[in-house]
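This part of the workshop introduces the protein records we will be handling. As an example, a complete record with its sequence and its structure tokens follows.
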Amino acid sequence: MSPVHDAFGRTTEESSQSATAAQAPSDAAHPVSLPRSERGGGGTGAGRIVGRLLVVLLLLATGAATVTATMRHAIDIAPDQSRAVEHALAKDPLDPRSLLRAAPLRRGLDRLRRELDPGDRIVGVTVTPGQLLLSLADARDQSRWLMLGADGSIDEHDLSSTDDSAGVPFEAIRPAGATRFLARKLRELRPHARDPTLSLAILTSSSSTTGAFGQSASATRRTLRWSVRFSGVRAAEESWTLDSSGRQVG
């Protein structure tokens, strides 16, 4: 059979193959999509997590080194600061940091107040330029000292003794008048006066009364007395006694 030709002179078989080739999709026009893990940029999810962990660990290591260096610096400086305060107070007992001044003493009392345990009673107060000492008795009458340094340090010392005295409430301790008296006397007695000390004693006295029906009743009265003391001066100038407000009484 003779081949059949189309209008262009091609056989019908060639025409069919040409049409099929024209209809076939081009691979170059439609590239194959690669999986995300094989694409460039960003890496895998596990890789990104490892990278972030390394950054966090580096930051933590840097922070730990900084904190350690800061702590070592503070440890080295603390003794130097204490010695500097001690030297300043030895030179001037009324240095602005001295606990014999009204404002630092009031702040020191307020700070030690927060250190008291329930049931503690104040049975005595002793103040020097560098230390505030509270004599305490607890609910079982066991005695101890609570101390604050002019450098801000706090210490505590248990005593092997008891004290059954009633004590005094914090509100009754008003040292401003006594500190003014001490400062005035210290200036008057310079340069001889040394070791200025301010102390608070609690004096107790008992009295009894008889009622209309022959019944007796006893009452205990507490009196607060400040004592100001120096060394290096004449005996008549060594000590003074003041009432709770700082007025001289003896």
User: Anything to note?
Assistant: Residues 236 and 246 are 19 Å apart (CA to CA). The longest strand covers residues 194-210. Residues 102-207+218-242 form one domain. Confidence is low (pLDDT under 50) at residues 19-42, 73-77.
